[in-house]
Every structure is written in structure tokens, then in C-alpha cells.
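Problem 3 from the worked examples.
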Amino acid sequence: MEQQAILVYDGTLEGFLCCVFTAYEEKLKVVDIKPPGGQAGQQLFSEPREVFTEPEKAKRVWSSLKKKASAAGLRDLKWAFLSEILGMEMHMYSMIRYILAENVPVDRDFSHPAVLKVSQAAKKVGREKHRMEAFVRFRLTKDEVYFAAIEPDFNVLPVIKSHFKNRYADQKWIIYDLKRNFGIAWDLSVVNYITLDLDPAIGISGAPEAYFHSSEIAFQKLWNQYFTSTNIKSRANQKLHVQHLPKRYWKYLTEKNL
């Protein structure tokens, strides 16, 4: 008889994969998997158990998945994890069990509830990824570093870093997730994950004189004037505008905030 278990991990994908490894190794009946501080459902006879992250164990699980799942299925698992949707770990765990149990590829079998849930979450992350790539606006700081602050619905920094590294390879930049308090920084050679103690006054758009270069302040004023002068109010289609540019992204745009 399988022992029931609630597994607690460190909040990383590697940590989650170690939970999968532990469940198989010890033949556990997993009733919940959650990060530190996460809410678990009330389960009789099950005490939360901490699973320590061991990269080699995580690698073994991922290697097993790569033998049975498509590139799209593996991407969906990674992106669904970044969605941070409550309870997503158990959907991922069910999908992984399904993949490993079958002798034919099943990661695109959307009739399976877990595969469908993971795919839907991955699509949400994918949409947020594309919108962040389109709407992120850099501001030149006094330190000659281009800085952008974001507050995405999902944890998309890990999946947008390649886009910005390739597109802005010739200048130093930082993209900082204010909601999760970490960022990515390009120093002209490598992208690093960083944490900063930011003054809230730095904002998401606009250019406070305490932090940003005088040329940045002048440019933002000029751009706002241009946008205002070219905007023909009589031809405005607000419904179509919001459809293509949802209001929750307006805070990133200079022309919407000055």
C-alpha cells in the first residue's frame, strides 16, 4: 500500500522534479506538492514533508521525460510551472506519471485532464511572454544602464531573457520584476539573475530626475508631445485599441503615463 504524502519543495523546477523522483523512489501516494508557505488541502493522515533539491535527481527525471515526451510537451511543463497557478504542481505530476507510464507519446493527449490543464497554463504564459517582449520599455539611467520595470501576471523573466539578449546585445540593460522582486541583467557578456533594493519612486514608466538620465527625460517628453499631436480623437476606436493593447499594459507605455 502506498504511503500518502504532502511534499514541500523549495519553489524551483529542480525542486519539483526532486519531488517526482522521491515519489517514485519511495512509492508514495502524493496528495499535494507545494512550495514553502503554499496552501495544501486538508488531508487526513498526511503530514507535510520537505524534499531537498538534488540536481542529479532532477536531471534523472528530466532525462526520462525527454525520452518519452515531445519538445512541445517539455516546454508546456516548464511554462506551466512558471504560471504559479495554485495547484499546478499536481497537474504537472499527474501529466508526468501519465507520460512515464505509457509506451507511446501522450504529452499531446488533451483528453487527459492534467495534460489539458498544463497546456492551458502554458498558453497563458506564452501570451504573457509575447506581450512582455512587445511592451517592455527601457529607460536610460544616470549610470548609462537601460532599465525596465515590469509586473507580469506570470513569472516570464526566464523565458524572455533570450529575446532581449539577442535584440539588445550592444547595450547594458536590466529588466526587473517588481512583483517577484528579482530581475535579469545583461552586462554585454552574460545574463545574470539579480535582486535589488529599489525605491518605489522609480516607478514603471516616466523618468524621475533622481534616477534617470536627462536625455531620457527629454526624450519621454518629446515622445509624449508627438503622440498627442498625431492622435486624431475623431478617428479613435477605443474598443479595438483595448482589444490589441489591454489596459493592464498601459502602465509600461510612456504615451499613456505622462
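Problem 4, a separate protein:
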Amino acid sequence: MSKAISMQKKLALIALPFVAVVIALGAFTRLADAGLGCPDWPGCYGFLHIPTQQQDIQQANMAFPDQPYEFDKAWPEMVHRYFAGTLGLLILGLFLLSWKIRQVQSTPFKLASVLLVLIVFQAALGAWTVTEKLHPLIVMGHLLGGFTTFSLLTIFAVRVFRPANDITNNDISSFKKLTSIAIAVLFMQIALGGWTSANYAALVCTDLPICQGDWTARTDFANGFKLWGHEAETYQYGVLSLESMTAIHVSHRIGAIVTSLVILLLIVSLMKKAESSISRKMVPLFSSLLVIQVALGVSNVVFHLPLSIAVAHNGVAALLLVSLVAYRTIIWQHERQFEQQGVAHG
């Protein structure tokens, strides 16, 4: 039993950075316009490896004459699939180990089950991304699935490791609700960012702070946030009008302001009211990630979406989200512990 528990912890530690890499690779693939680098799934032009030999490339072009093979777009897509597939095996391992020790009270078996279902659904979304030719709703859903997987794995790790800390009842009552709000607002902002990227709206506004001089006169929110029904043959490079893309971009900017203010409110509250060292440690963590994320967002506009900065923008958003999730999980753990102690004393 102890060996299985130890293995579970090791797998959780491996899976956490692994999912971060998968998210970064997914962002790189999407932003490098390589989402259709392989027109089929799960292979690439009929191969389970990246075609590099001349005869394989000729065979690939014969099989898909309408989508000629491009190595620069095929390799990011396949590397992303390799890593995503490996992540799926890691989560399967976590599920099997959690099932084996499910009688141990601290084992989050239900959470492991949810993770397994989620990773299978993520695989389906990956396939639909290709078959539906980068439909924005599916692309955004695939991105949110990755962030959700990272968040749930973070919760899993915190629950199995149970890090020692000195959080107090006052900290729990002061920061529980505000941390939950910050997580919800940030997740919505990430969804807006995914919708912006999936609709190729990131470069529609290259000026600050007002987009195109007049937001109200040059926006079409109805079509910009029409989730389904465009009936395009392919969604690569976008199918929306300039006004629709402007509406999406503007919404993401406004969302960034709201999200920053909410997280800043949490930081200020922690600075003023935190009693425990674990809560005080959140101040520099949240502050640094927020400053970096805002700087990356501005840099994307100023420097016209450099690939490295755009990928980093995705990555830091993920780190900010899981940092908030980890802190909220610690609050939940100790709230539950205090409740159990109260019942025991009662």
C-alpha cells in the first residue's frame, strides 16, 4: 500500500510539469498556424511518425492532394500529440493507482476518475479540431480543457502531498470567497483569450489603449460571439469580419482590466489581512505573475504578436490560474480539517 501511495505522488509530480509542457506546445502549434499541419488524426498523413523521408512525403501528398505536406507545420502538431498522448498515460496511471488505494481516506479517487474522463474528452476535442477544420468553439474548448486538466492535477497534487502550513480560520474566512471569484474571473478571461486566438483576432488591434480609435462604431458583438453556424469549409486564418474580430479583441482587453483588478484586490487583501505565512507567501507569487502577464499582453500588441511572447502569455496565464487554484485548495483542506475537528470535539 505504501509503495502505491509513493508511486502515486511521483506520478503526480511528473504529470504536473508535463501538462504545462502540453499547454505550451498546444499554444505554439495554434499560434504557428500548425493546427492543420496534419490533416488526419491520430496519425500524420497516414503515418504515426513525422514524415521526413522523400518517399513518405510523396505518399503523403498523394493521399492528401488538397493539403500538401509541410514539415514546419507537421512537426509541431505531432510533437504536441506525442506529449498529449504521454500525459494521457500518466493520468491513466494515476487513476489505476488511486483505484488500488481507494480505501485510503486521503486518496482523491473521484478526482482521478474525473481527470481520466477529461483527458479522454480532450483527445476527442483534439480529433475534432482537425476534422472540423479548426472550428473556433472546438479550439477554445480544447484550450480550456488543457487549463482545466492542469488545475485538477494541481488540486490532486495538493491533496496527496498535503503541504504543511499555518493557515488560520481568519485567513479562510477572509480569502475563501475572493480567491474563488479570482479563479472564476481569470478562467473567463482565459476563455476570451482562447476565443481571440481561435478567431485570429489578436492582431486586429495594434494600438493602445483604444482599439481602432472608436470601439463602439467598429464592433459587431453579435457575430463576434456567435459560437456556431458560420458553416465555413475551413476556419484556418479566420472567417469573421473586421468588426466581429474587433469586438472579440476589445472584450479580451476589457476582460484583462477586470481580471487584473480582481486579482489586485486579492493581493491587497492578503497584504493587509494575512495572518499565516502561507497566505503572505501568496503576495509575491500572485503579484509577480500578474505583472508579467500584463507586460506580456501589452508586448503582444506593441510587437505584433511575436510567437515566443504569445506562447509565454499562455503559459503565465496557466501558472497564475494554478497558483490561485493551489491556494484555494489549501484553504479548502484546512476548512475541512477544522470542521472535522469541530465535529470530533463536539
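Solution to problem 4. The mean pLDDT is 92. The chain has two domains: 1-162, 165-346.
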